[in-house]
Automatic annotation (TrEMBL):
Gene3D superfamilies: Acyl-CoA thioesterase, double hotdog domain. InterPro entries: ACOT8-like_C, Acyl-CoA_hotdog, HotDog_dom_sf, TesB_ACOT8-like_N. Pfam families: 4HBT_3, 4HBT_3C. Signal peptide: none annotated. This is Thioesterase family protein. It comes from the Bacteria. Residues 133-259 form the Acyl-CoA thioesterase-like C-terminal domain. It comes from Actinomadura chokoriensis.
Length: 263
């Protein structure tokens, strides 16, 4: 379990100190994309909010490994509007851009709209949290331990497709509760780990981006993610996932991945 109180400590003026809980499985020095995505999503929600609207889609472009260090977050509106607005943002470290992102903020649909859903109900939440398996060489004391995982099918150390329930043990930013969007973004970048079917000992697999689209805000702490990965010789890999809460599916996630031989 993570000993940190949050993924980030606010420093004021859009600056944040990254705690060790943000570290990904490949190195304690570099962050997992989940907290990074949550941080820029949080900034989108807070920037010039308009009553009756919601952030429905966030795309995060990961330009380089994000260090576990102080970060600066900046957001602006590039297409203002009462019903539809496009926002852009960036995360920098020591003046260098490491993440850029965009988001669509749209007017919430009328409350009398009849819901439409084609997804099956998610599997029940397992009653206990198993320990991690033997994931050789992985850094388990950062993000992976800061999240609570209850796998239904597959796991990080077993080939996918996979399905897991998960929640953060700590808030994204110290001293404040996570919003539904933040919870979804903090989890969604784990899709390629849950759904991956390629041998990490043989293949280098790195996602260049993450897109999360939510047709409604998820409710509650626990989210269920079902993920699968497709890869083609001479091409690349694509991971897609569904996101659900206990009442049903609420959105989708998509990642583009580089695949290369380990050297």
């Amino acid at each position: 379990m993570s000993e940190n109180e949050a993924f980030y400590e606010p420093l004021g003026d859009g600056r944040y100190a990254s705690t060790p809980a943000t570290a990904g499985p490949w190195s304690p020095a570099f962050q997992h994309g989940g907290p990074v995505s949550g941080l820029i999503g949080r900034a989108f929600e807070r920037h010039d909010p308009v009553a009756g609207t919601r952030v429905a889609r966030v795309t995060v472009e990961i330009l380089s490994p994000v260090p576990v260090a102080e970060l600066q977050v900046n957001v602006r509106v590039v297409r203002p509007g009462k019903r539809i607005a496009l926002l852009e943002g960036e995360i920098t470290h020591e003046g260098r851009q490491v993440v850029r992102a965009s988001a669509w903020r749209i007017m919430a649909a009328p409350s009398h709209l009849a819901p439409v859903s084609h997804a099956p109900d998610p599997p029940p939440l397992p009653g206990s949290t198993p320990p991690f398996g033997d994931w050789a060489g992985a850094h388990l004391d950062g993000y992976l331990s800061a999240m609570e995982w209850r796998p239904v099918e597959g796991a990080f150390d077993r080939p996918g497709p996979g399905t897991t329930w998960a929640r953060a043990r700590i808030p994204l930013v110290a001293g404040e509760p996570d919003t539904p969007l933040v919870r979804a973004l903090t989890l969604a970048d784990s899709a390629s780990g849950i759904g991956g079917q390629l041998d990490y000992a043989k293949w280098l697999i790195i996602n260049t981006d993450l897109t999360v689209a939510l047709h409604r805000d998820p409710a509650g702490e626990w989210l269920c993610m079902a993920a699968s990965l497709d890869a083609s010789p001479g091409g690349s890999a694509l991971c897609q996932a569904t996101l659900a809460d206990p009442s049903g599916e609420c959105g989708r996630a998509l990642q583009t991945l580089l695949v290369d031989e380990q050297t």
